[in-house]
Amino acid sequence: TKRPESRIEIVEAGREQAPREAAVARLEGAGQDGRPRLEELVRSEIEQIEHAQAAVSLVRTGQVLFLDAGSTNLAIASALPELALTVITNAPSIAMALMERPEIELIMAGGRVDRRAGASLGPQALRTVERMHPDLCFLGACGADADAGVTAFNYDEAEFKRSIAGASKAVVVA
User: pTM of the predicted model, to two decimals?
Assistant: First the structure.
């Protein structure tokens, strides 16, 4: 059967809109000082742990996984069971979290690190993942849109996500 084409689009906020959008985001669920309320931060942390636990329930011994950059995928990396796995990542933070796990073979997609994305992106990272065919890809999402699907903030990130999603046997948006 033919796999559906990956639906990852680029969403770029105009610079003049970003501060206003950030201000609105800060005000929603924030205290009078504009900071998130403690209960909002705790709820977010609990939800992230629950998502990570649900995600790792899909993992089986011997699988090849791809973990994209992002805080939810970092939580998934920390929650991985003690199984013989191969984990590919383009995120230095995820690679660091898995360094002390001898049962996990760790492959780092290299190249230029985009600090905003927290990930290696660009031609060298793409060349690494083009040869990989993970059993399970945990794809970080900058956003999601009913029509566009998973979104990314820039072209390099969108291309990387398209490439790894297309090469993977199964994709989970984290």
Answer: 0.74
